[in-house]
């Protein structure tokens, strides 16, 4: 009841190796004292030397004149030496100082940079919740066997509701989900839905109604009705707390079943969620409720159980025919229900005006479909409403 959805950095651009900008040296050429051009890096301890005569390089320092021809034994010998020098293999330039390994881009054999492996992506919250559910021995909630939310819409809806109920706080959502699975494993709500409850205690006390359009649209609204004025004996109905809670849980399961979550095909978000229920509590003739400790205990436990195990299922809640002395109910709710949920609570002293509250409903004519007792034109609850199974 408590209401509560990196890219790996791009590879660095291809850069020219610093070694490619260093002028190469030849063994025979005399050393030059000219400094290297800006932007070039000389091997450690060496100064770039000039090119052999006859070769020029825009990036090299101004060449020193070659030795005079007269110094050679004869012109032919000089030309031969020059030719030999020109054809001699040039030694590879010494590598430039290595850049930091962290900054150096990795390159493939063909020279194309290789992007670094992407960092592991953070797990999506729903995936984490699914992992939590997988680790539990009980994997059913509201009649749905939980499975991968990426491929199973009903599971996505349920897990998203737990996330929404906790305002996106994953740790809290995991904790609530785990506790719900614990509770369902112990309580077995689906069995309570099939169980026949005490007719004397609970007949006429709770109903579920579902209203649809006349056009064949899938749109529908589900209501649960708690008619506390039908209580025959306060001690019998509320005296044994476990019996009352089991019956109330069965009524909630009946309403959730009518939402058809198990066959849903549309996912929900934090903002868009049509899978919710209207709740109506009729306190007509229950002015003495304030003085009944058993009723207080039942109310408190009901709020606690439904808030913990049926999150984000409440659309709006109407307290009708409410006497002034019922103020304690709201004090209890403030302790167990989120502030955003409290905004959905509407106390009304006149139950006959309930239909007017639905004049702006997305379901056309919803108010008119309600029972006449509540301002509509529809049949009374005893004829239209569904009850939990009751003993004969």
From TrEMBL:
It comes from Gaeumannomyces tritici (strain R3-111a-1). One of its GO terms (molecular function) is metal ion binding. Keywords: Cytoplasm, Endoplasmic reticulum, Heme, Iron, Lipid transport, Membrane, Metal-binding, Microsome, Transport. Residues 242-382 form the CRAL-TRIO domain. The keyword Protein biosynthesis does not apply. It is a peripheral membrane protein. This is Phosphatidylinositol transfer protein SFH5. GO terms for cellular component: cortical endoplasmic reticulum; cytosol; endoplasmic reticulum membrane; plasma membrane. Its cofactor is heme b. InterPro entries: CRAL-TRIO_dom, CRAL-TRIO_dom_sf, CRAL/TRIO_N_dom, CRAL/TRIO_N_dom_sf, Sfh5. The keyword Transport applies. Residues 1-107, 366-392 are annotated as: Disordered. It catalyses: a 1,2-diacyl-sn-glycero-3-phospho-(1D-myo-inositol)(in) = a 1,2-diacyl-sn-glycero-3-phospho-(1D-myo-inositol)(out). Residues 48-60 have a biased composition (Basic and acidic residues). GO terms for biological process: Golgi to plasma membrane protein transport; regulation of exocytosis. It is found in: Cytoplasm; Endoplasmic reticulum membrane; Microsome membrane.
